[in-house]
Structure to design on (823 residues):
């Protein structure tokens, strides 16, 4: 009705008005409006009958009267107010300031209208004065916001220069006020990032759509917020920082000190990497390459290259064992992370910055927990107690295993078995146990010393201590692992035999021979399952500490507005006749999405060791390897 | 302008619909679900405690009883904070977007806001739910790639599940506001 007629009225305007006819929606709007002075402002295109939204910062709601400065977004018919310019001012200086800000931030900042906060002044003179300003700074549409002292309800008017001649429609629009917290919107980051992440020098316009345009505008206009009331500038502005620019001495000192510290640490880390590479390959070439700080990628490539057994065949056993131990994996992972954190290049975008911060916090927490563990271990001589308890436990386990084997070699649970095969396998396993017990007794004088030195490694981090524990368990239970391998291979053969004979099985005779090795594998599997469970738990814990983004979670907990999933609106008190007022707040990201977005890449063994695949492997007789295979995905 | 009406949900429970017309371009609909009933709460608590007492007589360990109390408390808190929704609100603002808020019994509020540029239409759809055919209101989102396609369907009032009469009221109001969006594009 009224809406349709306004559209036709606008379309029916004479040729003199052709410049301000509403453009079709897919035309590229001119977002850098030239500083406002003469003629019809080019940013005058708007969608007719769309409600005009004025985004007003909450910090300016109590400011004195003045001019509204901000950006006009024609496609959404919204005006983003960034600051208020107070009286007295000289129009030329205001225009100069706006031109400067526009050049620095590449955002089309302009004077949008007037703001009137009536306290005690008589209304008439101010009213006329403000209307006169509309002639100096022409902008289409011209906003006039007014607030009475002590009243919650505001009055807003948006007038258009070119008033259509048809009397049925007025030159005014419906206005909706949306309040926003400028500081939070400035510091927050929308997920998913709606604006293009790459801001090249030639890319002048803010290409975000929707509400992301508001966030983008505020974030880019930092140049406008740099002056405060205590500056002796020609123009006095009101914005979120106008009562004093926010800064912290500690942050400034940290920034100043970060440069030299990072340089020092990168040199140290490259020395450490070179030293560990040299230990494997004693040739002069790699040391020379290591001292080139820029070629870190090549250094890591060479480090991995030395781990491949095909290249260093004379040191093959050592490097093979090296690559299988989880401690070495963990140390290498930590070294890579530290190199990334302390690299002298600045982070290119917010995601990289978050990643660096997450790694740093994770390393610090790891070291702190490791030191706590260290202090606990060295108190009350716990290491001595542990070493004393180790030998009897090993003896006890060996005795139990021997009893079990004796029982199996006889007639277990009354079953009649193939004596010859039983005796062979039983004796084979008993010899294993005998060797292992001899080895443990040989090592017994050195165990306390080894444990003490291993305990010292906890100061490198809790994850390193856990990896060492996992490696020790693996080495101590190696014999059980051997039994498991033999049993699993035989069981696997049996399963294949059964599945291929299933067709014969139906209707043919029962083959008792196949049942022999079953009980042997099942019992050993129980023992092995316990060990594998413990190892799996340790690996999962290490992966959790490695990959949890602690800094992002802390940020979500303490400063939820920094990580934004979107916005939410709240309708403020409303009175018939006055414009609608809304409060725009930031909707923080949920914890699960924070973890999912900022998850650090871990050592990559997590998908292999899930519980489902573990059970499947046990059932079908596939071998479970307690160390990382070469085919596993590396960081 | 405020207005309250009583409707029923698909299982026969009582729902209260509160409508607020702030302005011709902004409307809010608030559906309150039936509260947690004392009868079901007592029944669940008694079952859990009887089972715990049975276990206690079997194994003579008093930890079972304290564990049962702990589990009941934690379960109730978790239910109130994560599962039980008290009120669902739909706020539709012309040329800004549509906002859905769910308030849980513990006071937690979870909000989703969809910008008007992404909304294609608001429709009433049919669905097969267990053994019934029910109606539900949903928002169709535009597909950025294909101009006439629908990329996602967002259902509304999922825990209140009102019947068709309530949905028709909400649908009519929403269409009045959405008509403002479609009018300029047809007249141009």
């Amino acid at each position: 009705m009224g809406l349709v007629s306004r559209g036709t009225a606008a379309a029916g305007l004479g040729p003199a008005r052709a410049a301000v006819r509403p453009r079709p929606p897919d035309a590229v709007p001119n977002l850098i409006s030239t500083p406002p002075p003469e003629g019809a402002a080019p940013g005058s295109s708007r969608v007719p009958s769309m409600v005009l939204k004025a985004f007003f910062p909450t910090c300016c709601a109590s400011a004195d009267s003045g001019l509204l400065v901000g950006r006009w977004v024609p496609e959404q018919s919204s005006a983003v107010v960034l600051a208020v310019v107070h009286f007295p001012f000289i129009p030329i200086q205001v225009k100069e300031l706006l031109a400067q800000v526009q050049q620095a931030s590449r955002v089309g900042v302009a004077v949008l209208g007037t703001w009137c906060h009536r306290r005690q002044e008589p209304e008439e003179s101010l009213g006329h004065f403000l209307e006169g300003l509309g002639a100096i700074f022409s902008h289409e549409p011209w906003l006039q916001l007014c607030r009475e002292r002590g009243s919650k309800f505001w009055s807003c008017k948006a007038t258009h220069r070119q008033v259509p001649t048809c009397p049925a429609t007025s030159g005014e629009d419906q206005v909706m006020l949306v309040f926003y917290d400028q500081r939070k919107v400035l510091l927050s980051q929308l997920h998913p990032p709606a604006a293009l992440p790459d801001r090249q020098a030639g890319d002048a316009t803010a290409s975000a759509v929707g509400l992301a345009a508001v966030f983008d505008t505020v974030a880019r206009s930092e140049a406008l917020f740099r002056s405060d009331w205590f500056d002796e500038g020609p123009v006095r502005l009101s914005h979120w920082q106008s009562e004093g620019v926010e800064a912290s001495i500690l942050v400034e000192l940290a920034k100043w000190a970060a440069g030299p510290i990072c340089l020092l640490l990168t040199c140290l880390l490259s020395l450490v990497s070179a030293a560990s590479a040299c230990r494997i390959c004693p040739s002069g070439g790699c040391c020379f390459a290591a001292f080139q700080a820029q070629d870190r990628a090549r250094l890591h490539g060479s480090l991995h290259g030395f781990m491949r057994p095909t290249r260093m065949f004379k040191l093959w056993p050592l490097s093979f064992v090296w690559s299988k131990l989880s401690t070495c994996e963990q140390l290498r992972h930590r070294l890579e992370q530290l190199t990334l954190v302390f690299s002298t290049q600045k982070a290119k975008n917010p995601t990289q910055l978050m990643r660096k911060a997450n790694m740093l916090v994770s390393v610090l927490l790891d070291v702190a927990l490791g030191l706590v563990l260290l202090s606990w271990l060295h108190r009350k001589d716990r290491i001595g107690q542990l070493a004393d308890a180790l030998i009897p436990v090993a003896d006890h386990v060996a005795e139990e295993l021997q009893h079990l084997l004796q029982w199996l070699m006889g007639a277990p649970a009354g079953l009649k078995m193939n004596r010859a095969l039983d005796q062979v396998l039983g004796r084979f396993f008993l010899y294993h146990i005998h060797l292992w017990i001899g080895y443990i007794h040989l090592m017994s004088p050195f165990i306390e010393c080894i444990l003490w030195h291993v305990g010292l490694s906890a100061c490198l981090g809790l994850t390193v201590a856990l990896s060492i524990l996992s490696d020790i368990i693996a080495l101590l239970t190696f014999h059980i692992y051997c039994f498991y391998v033999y049993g699993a291979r035989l069981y696997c053969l049996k399963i294949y035999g059964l599945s291929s004979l299933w067709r014969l099985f139906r209707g043919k005779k029962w083959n008792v021979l196949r049942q022999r090795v079953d009980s042997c594998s099942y019992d050993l599997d129980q023992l092995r399952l316990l060990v594998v469970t413990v190892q799996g738990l340790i690996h999962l814990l290490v992966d959790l500490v490695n990959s949890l983004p602690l800094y992002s979670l802390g940020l979500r907990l303490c400063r939820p507005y920094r990580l934004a999933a979107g916005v939410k609106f709240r309708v403020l008190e409303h009175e018939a006749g006055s414009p609608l007022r809304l409060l725009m707040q930031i909707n923080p990201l949920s914890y699960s999405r924070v973890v999912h977005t900022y998850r650090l890449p871990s050592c990559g063994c997590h998908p292999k060791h899930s519980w489902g695949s573990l059970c499947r492997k046990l059932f079908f007789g596939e071998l479970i390897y307690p160390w990382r295979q070469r085919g596993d995905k590396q960081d | 302008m405020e207005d309250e009406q009583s409707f029923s949900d698909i299982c026969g429970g009582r729902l209260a619909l509160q409508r607020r017309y702030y302005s011709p371009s902004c409307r809010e609909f608030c559906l309150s679900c039936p509260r947690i009933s004392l009868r079901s709460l007592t029944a669940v608590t008694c079952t859990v405690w009887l089972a715990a007492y049975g276990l206690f007589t079997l194994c003579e360990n008093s930890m079972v009883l304290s564990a049962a109390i702990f589990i009941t408390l934690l379960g109730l808190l978790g239910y109130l904070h994560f599962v039980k929704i008290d009120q669902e609100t739909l706020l539709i603002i012309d040329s800004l977007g549509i906002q859905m808020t769910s308030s849980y019994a513990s006071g937690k509020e979870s909000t989703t806001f969809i910008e008007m540029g992404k909304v294609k239409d608001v429709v009433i759809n049919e669905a097969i739910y267990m053994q019934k055919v029910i109606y539900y209101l949903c928002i169709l989102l535009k597909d950025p790639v294909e101009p006439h396609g629908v990329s996602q369907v967002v259902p509304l009032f999922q825990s209140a599940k009102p019947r068709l009469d309530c949905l028709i009221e909400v649908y009519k109001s929403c269409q009045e506001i959405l008509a403002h969006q479609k009018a300029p594009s047809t007249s141009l």
About this structure: Residues 249-280 of chain A form the longest helix (32 residues). Chain A touches chain B through 30 residues (CB under 8 Å).
